[in-house]
Amino acid sequence: MSTETIEKPEFNITVYTENQIGLLSRIAIIFTRRKINIDSLNVSPSEIDSIHRFNILINETEDTVRKLCRQIEKQVEVLKVYYHTNADIIWQEMALYKVSTDVIAEQVSVERLLRENGARAVVIRKDYTVFETTGHREETDALIKILQPYGLIEFVRSARVAIIKNSEGFNSKLREFERLEPGEDVIENEYLNKGQKVFTM
Amino acid sequence: MEVAQETLTVPAKTETKEVSGSVALLDALIAEGTDTIFGYPGGAIMPIYDALYDYNDKLNHVLVRHEQGGIHAGQGYARTSGKVGVVFATSGPGATNLVTGLADAQIDSTPLVCITGQVFAHLLGTDAFQETDVINITTPVTKWNYQVTDANEIPEVIAKAFYIARSGRPGPVLIDITKNAQIQKFDCPAYTPCNHIRSYRPKPIVRKQYIEQAAELINQAKRPFVLWGQGVILGSAEQEFKAFIEKSGIPAAWTILGAGAIPTNHPLNVGMLGMHGNYGPNVLTNECDVLIAIGMRFDDRVTGRLDKYAKQAKVIHLDIDPAEIDKNVKTTVPVWGDCKETLPMLTALINEAKHTDWVSRFNDYTKQEVDAVIHNELNPTTPEMTMGEVIKLLNELTNGDAVIVSDVGQHQMVACRYANLNKTRSNVTSGGLGTMGFALPAAIGAKFGAQEREVVAIIGDGGFQMTLQELGTIMQTGVNVKIIILNNRFLGMVRQWQELFNERRYSFVDIQSPDFVKLADSYGIAGQSVDNRSNLQGALQEMLAHNGSYLLEVIVTKENNVFPMVPQGCSVAEIRLK
């Protein structure tokens, strides 16, 4: 094993796909085959009816990420793949926290908790209360630390969802894809000239 | 898939006729030009086989002896015919037996459409008899796969399957059809072939500026070197490729899957690349100034150690698959596209040239290789025979016109190194996956794909025993395949590595064989065994003259090694002659 540590920053991979059973597995195995862990995965509708959008978060070198993206884009039902650094996107994660209402009422000022952590109470019952926060990882993590001493009963965090800052959406691209002869807009190897900021094939 | 709903709600434009899913499937296969199916029946595919009973005059079904044999036969058929190989198997074990062949076809870009039967849709996920999750098992080893649970989907799915299998970089497609969909009657519209899927673009758009940059590099080059692979054959671009190298005068070497795209004796064909390739192409890879890779993927067996591979060279890579560019070797100019289109564009822009001195350097290395290796391999003075002399005699007797199907191991490297190939689509071998047992069934398929050609399978004693049950397929179909077993009583390639790298610790490579001639005889196949050089030529002549299949066992020397060799982890320049 090399002792040299290679920097593996966070990359956000956005995949536009058809809605097809089995495609999730087809995409997931591209990572698992190379023993790469997916840190976060979200599949949702996109701005276009019938087109789905995957948001995949991994820690890898850019070289590997580029190769992964090409392998993903090669899949028949995948329309387009982009990858971005965190600086290129707006992103959010949501977290839910369940704590005992008694403990919270007795030992902590609920109001202070909510205010200081941008949280809101989703459910308040006699036996437990569920808080919710939305934000970056540090922000959702912060509330865990605060609640832990008071007996955090359950915690869950959602996958990351991300919007690409300089994207104009997929509508015009899709029209190109639907043509038999796509125009230069969806040209494959543009990236070679463009300093590799935005991956587009 | 929204086919079902469309056919129910939208009035059909064309006439429909009520048929079962099975009949719709067979009609679709015929519409796609299928003439031969390699398959094996079973419970979950019985409705399709029942329909097949009435299609005897239109579809030739070859009953194999194992589904792995069926898919390798489909591969052999696809490789010699250039058409899509079609394979039938039942659910469960029938389908899982296809997996090796799917992986082989995936890595070697062979177009296949495999149809597997599946249990009734209502039984999916219940661990029903002979139920396996075929779609998930085959996902990593197929270009595309799809499960049909409603007969209405069949025409469109089969059209897509053929389009995906044969277009772009070809590959295997698997369609799993539940038994209820096979039985179900539906109004089947007239067959419409598929030529567009919005999420799938088989051919990248050719960009002129990259062609221009590539031409400029080639025109400036002093020591340009071409590497070609199967892409030239898959793209039917043999003529375009020949025109390109002849105008540019660039020496060209091949990967084993590219072998035969131009004849072996073409003056600019400087030989085979890779671990057991020729001396010059390996050494001079690290001396060329421009490396032009055409339809090849820089496999590790070709490149050896990557960080010492052609570092001095500017690399031009022509490939139809964008994922291949920069995957292993960093490209200076990527020429993405079908080489059938890109090569003529490139040829138009390059200057006529002759790199006489540079080509002669390859010839110098050839002389060294002949002296150190080739002469002794082809003209041995030892009492025992070599694999090479068998191939040499075969070349003389077939004039290099035969299709050579090889298995995996030492004999494969010898066959690829020494077989003369005059025509394209003449070398059928398992390159990427290295599947022992490939050759016998693949040879059967190769013959069905090219009936007019002589097909010679060259197989080791180990590999033959992996799929020898397909002798039964030969017996039953009467297909004319010549089989040469090069028997060294060892699993030779592993033994060679154990000799060279494991201090001759021969761990489980000593393999015993049955009497192959008696075995062939029990299948009604003629044959003989030769252990003496004086009988070799006569035996080969008898084999080739025999009207029908023939098995010739040649007892060769036990501990011969294949050289040259680039040891694993070494640079191509460190190739060893002994």
From TrEMBL, chain A:
Give GO BP annotations, semicolon-separated.
isoleucine biosynthetic process; L-valine biosynthetic process
Presence of keyword Amino-acid biosynthesis? yes
One GO molecular-function entry: acetolactate synthase regulator activity
Quickly give the catalysed reaction: 2 pyruvate + H(+) = (2S)-2-acetolactate + CO2
Keyword entries, A-Z = Amino-acid biosynthesis, Branched-chain amino acid biosynthesis, Transferase
Identify the residues that the record assigns to the ACT domain, covering every copy: 12-86
Output the Pfam families linked to this UniProt entry: ACT_AHAS_ss, ALS_ss_C
* EC number from the UniProt entry: 2.2.1.6
Cross-referenced InterPro entries: Acetalactate_synth_ssu, Acetolactate_synth/TF_NikR_C, Acetolactate_synth_ssu_C, ACT-like_dom_sf, ACT_dom, AHAS_ACT, AHAS_small-like_ACT
Gene Ontology CC annotation, any one: cytosol
Q: What class of enzyme is it?
A: transferase
Name its pathway: Amino-acid biosynthesis; L-isoleucine biosynthesis; L-isoleucine from 2-oxobutanoate: step 1/4; Amino-acid biosynthesis; L-valine biosynthesis; L-valine from pyruvate: step 1/4
Q: Subunit structure, briefly?
A: Dimer of large and small chains.
Family label: Belongs to the acetolactate synthase small subunit family.
Protein name, entry field = acetolactate synthase
Q: Which organism is it from?
A: Mucilaginibacter hurinus
Q: What is the lineage of its organism?
A: Bacteria, Pseudomonadati, Bacteroidota, Sphingobacteriia, Sphingobacteriales
**What gene name does this entry carry?**
ilvN
UniProtKB/TrEMBL annotation, chain B:
- The segment(s) forming the Thiamine pyrophosphate enzyme N-terminal TPP-binding domain are 21-135
Please give a single GO biological process term from the UniProt record.
L-valine biosynthetic process
The record's catalysed reaction(s) read: 2 pyruvate + H(+) = (2S)-2-acetolactate + CO2
Source domain of life is Bacteria
EC numbers for this chain: 2.2.1.6
Pathway(s) this gene product operates in, as recorded in its UniProt entry: Amino-acid biosynthesis; L-isoleucine biosynthesis; L-isoleucine from 2-oxobutanoate: step 1/4; Amino-acid biosynthesis; L-valine biosynthesis; L-valine from pyruvate: step 1/4
Question: Start and end of every Thiamine pyrophosphate enzyme TPP-binding domain?
Answer: 407-554
Q: Which Pfam families match?
A: TPP_enzyme_C, TPP_enzyme_M, TPP_enzyme_N
GO molecular function terms noted in the UniProt entry? acetolactate synthase activity; flavin adenine dinucleotide binding; magnesium ion binding; thiamine pyrophosphate binding
Note the NCBIfam families from the entry.
Answer: acolac_lg (TIGR00118)
What protein family does this chain belong to? Belongs to the TPP enzyme family.
Protein name listed in UniProt: Acetolactate synthase
What organism does the record attribute this protein to?
A: Mucilaginibacter hurinus
